[in-house]
Design a protein that fits this description.
- The chain is of the alpha+beta class and 302 residues long.
- The protein has helices spanning 2-15, 89-107, 174-190, 261-267, 291-295; strands at residues 24-32, 36-40, 47-50, 70-77, 85-88, 111-114, 117-119, 122-127, 130-135, 154-163, 168-172, 197-206, 209-215, 218-223, 244-253, 256-260, 280-281, 287-288.
- The strands form five sheets. It has a five-stranded mixed β-barrel with strand order 1-2-3-5-4.
- The model is unreliable at 276-302 (pLDDT under 50).
């Protein structure tokens, strides 16, 4: 009974409290119609949140708001003219939303977002109810001339700017694509086995060595000391750009592939030595080169 009385006194005290513009209240959603959401805010008047005060996202629908959920809202007015407390979930959500998007930026979180609008030099997406901008230069790795085909598409993007004071939220699809490209390249590099002999093409020559294109987007460095068995002053003495070469993988470390042309040559099978004509010895001790064998197949003219 004491708990019931305490609860009653708490509700009574709450019902007589004064709400001011800007106060943050918490309420339970009691109803939803086409134009507004209604809240029980433990007050003598019910709270009402109009659709435009719930979210800025143009794709948002009040029908997606579940009755019974608890939400926070900012008081816009203690009387909307019809005896309701006018509230904004959008304003209450903004402070929390900015904290969330800042965390997304710090952690490099990849977000799946639907492009909801086309503006000058970019597109619009919504993150946690906040309006975000993706510049055209960050929609792809390459140049994007026309952004209209992107409307309605879902893209993966990262937050690159989150400035609450300036209300500036900028995202990038390009950064995600670059990250995935790097990850794929790392995967390919890590799959290269030290000790293997590969075919490649000389990509470029530098004073310290030669870069060799191994195909599939990979290249490695042949240090000048690993180019030839003899001492050379410049890679250009024995190599030229575009030349096909065999290389041995010496090591794969820190995303770099070290190669050796010299070691690959050492592993190539050596040609068998040319057989010399057999020499036979007669009883009298004189040597012969096997005349019959030498003359075999030779036609003599009469």
């Amino acid at each position: 009974m004491s708990e019931t009385m305490a609860d009653f006194e708490k509700e009574l005290e709450a019902s007589f409290r004064k709400l001011n513009e800007g106060d943050v209240v918490e309420g339970v959603i009691t109803g939803v119609d086409e134009n507004a959401v209604y809240l029980d805010i433990n007050y003598h008047a019910q709270g009402i949140v109009k659709k435009e005060d719930y979210s800025d996202d143009p794709s948002f629908s009040l029908q997606s708001v579940p009755v019974g959920d608890t939400v926070k809202a900012v008081v816009l007015s203690d009387d909307d003219g019809e005896g309701n407390v006018s509230l904004s979930v959008k304003e209450a959500s903004k402070a929390m939303a900015w904290e969330t998007v800042k965390k997304y930026m710090e952690e490099g979180t990849v977000l799946s977002l639907k492009i909801g609008g086309i503006v000058n030099k970019g597109v619009i997406v919504y993150v946690e109810g906040l309006r975000g901008f993706i510049p055209a230069s960050h929609l792809e790795i390459g140049y994007v001339e026309d952004t209209n085909p992107y409307l309605g598409k879902t893209v993966d993007a990262k937050v690159i700017t989150a400035d609450e004071e300036k209300n500036r939220l900028v995202l990038s699809v390009k950064e995600v694509l670059y990250d995935r490209r790097r990850e794929e390249k790392e995967r390919k590099i890590n799959a290269v086995v030290p000790g293997s002999v590969l075919s490649g093409k000389v990509e470029s020559l530098m004073p310290y060595g030669a870069f060799v294109d191994l195909g599939d987007g990979l290249s490695g460095l042949v240090h000048i000391s690993q180019i030839a068995n003899k001492r050379i002053e410049s890679p250009g003495e024995v190599l030229k750009a575009g030349q096909e070469v065999k290389v041995k993988v010496l090591k794969v470390e820190n995303g770099k592939i070290s190669l050796s042309i010299k070691a690959a040559q050492d592993e190539e099978p050596q040609d068998a030595p040319e057989e010399k004509p057999s020499v036979s010895y007669k009883d009298e001790g004189s040597a012969s080169t096997g005349l019959g064998a030498l003359l075999a197949g030779i036609k003599l003219d009469n």
